[in-house]
Predict the 3D structure of the following.
Amino acid sequence: MKQAETGKKAWRNDAYSKVTGQAEYCDDLKVHGMAHAVPVYSSEVHAEIISIETEEARSFPGVLSVITAGDIPGEIRYGQIYKDYHMLADDRIRFNGDVIAIVVAQKREQAVAAAKLVRLNAKPLPPLLDPEEALKDGASLVHEDHIFEGKSCNITNHHKIRRGNVSAAFKECDFVIERKFNTQYIEHSYLEPESGLCIPRYDGVMEVMGSMQHPFSTRRFVAAILGAKLSDVEVRSVAVGGGFGGKDDTAALVCARAALAAKILNKPVKMTYDREWSFRESYKRHPYIIYYKMGIKNGKIHAAEVKIIADSGAYCSVTPWVTWRSTVQCCGPYEVEHVHCDTYGVYTNNVFTGAMRGFGSPQLNFAIEQLVDIAAEKLGISPVEFRKQNMLRQGSTTITGQVLDTHTVSLDQVFEETLKRMDYESKLAKCSRGRADENSDELYGTGLALSYRGMSLGAEGMDFNSAIINVQPDGSILLEAAIHENGQGAESAFILIAAGELGTSVDRIRYRQPSTSNIPDGGTTVASRGTIMGGGAVVTATRELKRKLAMALCCRLSCNPGDIRFFNDRIYGKTDDVFLTYEQAVHEMYLQQEIPYAFGVFKAPKVSWDEETGKGNAYFTWVYGCQAVELTVNRKTGKVKLLNMTAAHEVGRAINMPMILGQIYGGMAMGAGYGLMEEVKVKDGIIQNTNFNTYKIPRAADLPEMQAIVIENGDPLSPSGAKGIGEPANELMAPAIANAVYNATGIRYYSSPLKITVENENNNK
Amino acid sequence: MIMSSFDYLKPSSLEEASKLLLENKNSRILAGGTDLLIRMRGGEVKPEKVIDIKNIAGLHEITWEDGRLVLGAAVTWTRIKEDAKIAEHFPALTQASAEFGCYDVRNRATIGGNIANAAPGSECGSPLLIYNADVIVYGPSGERSIPIDQVWLAPGRTNLAEGEFITKVSIPLYPASTKSAYRRISRVEGQDLATCAIAVMISNPEEIAAREVRIALSAVSKTPMRAAELESFLSGKAIDGETINFCKSWMHRNLYPRASSLRGTPEYKKIVLGNLLEDILREFGVLAGELI
Ligand SMILES: Cc1cc2nc3c(=O)[nH]c(=O)nc-3n(C[C@H](O)[C@H](O)[C@H](O)COP(=O)(O)OP(=O)(O)OC[C@H]3O[C@@H](n4cnc5c(N)ncnc54)[C@H](O)[C@@H]3O)c2cc1C
């Protein structure tokens, strides 16, 4: 184990342009003759569409077209898993963010004004808003043609774990804790709302630029709506202002609708979303209802019975994948012998839900890490001790039967380092537990949470990635991997990895602006898989390039191919006085009619999963994290003041340290928002807070000092040694806060965000 | 994007501004714009003329005259926050300015705009109420003064007549022994409107019989309000645990905050305001004995 040096300098290929404001985001782009498209919503939540009247809008000055579902030449419905999303609503309104038409005008102002003139005639239907109601037999159907396990229902998926025998095991337990938890909708809050610019090109290709996290997913949506072949659509990357998992379905839909307009009008069309539209239409993090029963025997978590209901809203998006991770990780980083878990995704007429940083783990961690504290208290031992008795260690078996022996299981390391840095146990002893000092209204508490997290997609989907490295005649290098730069620094990480492998300076390597026509689809930039998968492909490609260079240059360098060394920005033979510069090397290769170009693929090692029993090697490797917090709660006002947040994460090998720290600090901040303030408020299916004046995320003034501990244990199954940090950093702070608030006030909150009550609230009527 | 088109006018005298207001029925005064532009963007108001008052001499001044502090309507919250003399005489106003918005908003937002905007939880509300401020308006019939407790009618509605606008706020000075304070609760530190707020002033704190207590509450009613009944209950009286408990139960019996607020439940506001009142009185050192 190595605790990494965190003081290293940052390096980013895009730092200068972003800091100086030169970077162009989609909405900055202007093309000659470009028209503007805007969406039209309705006031309905659930309704049968009778007709959509567009005449008045069409005759508004500047309006070029008003497009409805009937104008779609390709598929009306699309989706990542089920094709259930009506890209423009045709038969029904299924949630308040459904788009019934798009208005295209010469100016955006004209389109916005004309959008108000589109009229919907519809027959309102009672909305189905409660996921537990939606699960019942006889509930009305959100999608009448949806069939799950042979019957019409609202269930999108059902994942199971059947391990041991829980009912027998509970009988053996010393005690059993049963609790219900609820988590809320949250918005990703990316800085840049959705935007797409589509240009019908002279060669027949529809060129698409936009704010998205997965150009290939966007390409699929665009091709579907146009009825075009994938090769007829080229999605090019531009600077993206953040995603946090939120720039998939909706981002792709915005581009698809812009492409539809561009195709119909045969002119470039831009569609940029207002924050209000983005809040209204874009998918959110799933709210969960979690019924949890945990049985303790001899100080060990002996059995767990878990029922999870995830509100998928009107469309499925990636609910089956999100909830699969929740299922696999439903007991947290602990060894549990008997587990019975049923996880349902369910359609309702609420805003749809999908991928968000954490992807099904923040909800579960909120429950598990509180339950663990509750169990420890019942046992009369410290929550630290209880965790040590139960946590996964080298060679442990997970609840899905996976033996953790292919990498370093660093849970004890992250835990110990956090405890040490925080002086945690002595702080735990100082917690107020509901009793303030005489002279103070501030109640002090500290709390922590632990997790393990499967890296990349696991058995959720196909998992491989490719990279291209291409040395130019002057020795400069173009690099590209099929992972997208969303602002997180993926491109910089790949350049650093390639430069490390080749022994060159980073200045030699330029990242090629990606396009879906350059490189094969490498899957989406999610699941903290960017560095591990993209970096793996970069390593494979650079090693292949080095092999080619060595074969071609060994004669010139008077040695065997195996003797060739790459360092100091040059290519060396056996001794340091025999070398070629990259420019010379390329020249030599050209003479031999060899191309210094390599394509590399990294295929994720094999994983497995049995849908019926929930057994399998779910992920090929795992990361481990611990976060802790100190806070005070004012007993007179209920206000929480965060005093300190500390995190320890194991990341495999650290590639770009300041970026890792950025992910950890940002992850803790977002986690604090999840625990304390963020909540998309929905009333009768309509979102009440559609901008940041009423949807509150933490700002600098709300945040305390933060400390990050980075632990490096290079992973043998990751070619670059790196794993990931994006999501692990975001899945722990909310439960840590909930535990700290309990330790401060003596009150447990089972719903997020915590709505802290003040003394006498609820009993002073 | 602001969807409506409008003319931007920048008069340089009170007369001209008032004339423009009167001539153009659908016009709006622009000060810092931190409320107006947001409402224009949201399409809630669509003025044909926007009349910027920042070019009018005198509206930016902070003066001390005849035992009063006079703030020009276009004085920003930053200037209030940074003024040491205001902090000395009107700490509740300074405390409010520190809670107000965030750095960049304070640099633009004005006291006049805050009053005219007539929000139930406006930052100026409770402090100006306890200090018995007068709002000076200018209009077709010249200047007049409106006592602050008559300015607000309902959310977004003031007592200003057609063609009138706010030019100044005038606040009487109080003896040095007077104590005053403002406390607000909001969900987040970074920037939020008040969930609820309270301002308290107490004159002659040392002489119980001559004590006058003033209390104002924000974000619990259609407009910021004085709690007259509580004031007469507390004035001229020794304050102890029992008195405080009465105040707390008074909050429960007499306040009816809107249940639909995104910022806090009625129950929460009522309890917290009672707690904040207790807090302030304790800080003033006027609490006799310990609380039960
Ligand atoms: C991010 C943000 C945070 C905020 N935080 C707070 C906060 O913490 N507390 C708070 O109270 N408010 C807050 N506000 C609201 C707003 O900033 C204040 O109400 C501010 O004082 C308004 O002043 P202004 O000069 O910007 O008004 P403007 O927007 O220029 O005007 C507001 C309204 O008053 C009218 N008006 C302006 N001046 C006059 C005048 N002299 N006579 C007559 N009518 C006039 C305008 O026509 C308009 O209707 C916040 C706003 C934003 C955007």
